[in-house]
Design a protein that fits this description.
The protein is mainly alpha-helical and 87 residues long. 68% of the residues lie in helices and 0% in strands. It is rod-shaped and about 60 Å long.
Length: 87
């Protein structure tokens, strides 16, 4: 909703009235949804990766997500937190 509010603000600054500014077309709504999904994935994927490693690795089975993240960072670097995100 923040993206849609920003779009409405910009429309109002360009001269649209408040009701017209809040009327978003499918392209704006789709773009806002896509950006929100990307942000949500970037925030939550390291937790998902830790969960998968916890379930599949015998040495990390009882480890906490923080311990698993430290292990990933030590072994693979920061990009390791997002390994498999495009799969």
């Amino acid at each position: 909703t923040t993206g849609l509010r920003l779009a409405a603000f910009v429309k109002m600054q360009l001269g649209a009235d408040a009701e017209e500014a809040r009327d978003h077309g499918p392209a704006v709504t789709g773009a806002a949804t896509g950006v929100a999904k990307i942000i949500a994935t970037l925030v939550t994927y390291p937790l998902i990766r830790a969960k998968v490693l916890q379930q599949t690795s015998s040495q990390l089975r009882s480890a906490s997500p923080l311990v698993i993240w430290r292990h990933i960072l030590a072994e693979e670097g920061p990009s390791g937190l997002y390994r498999g995100v495009l799969a």
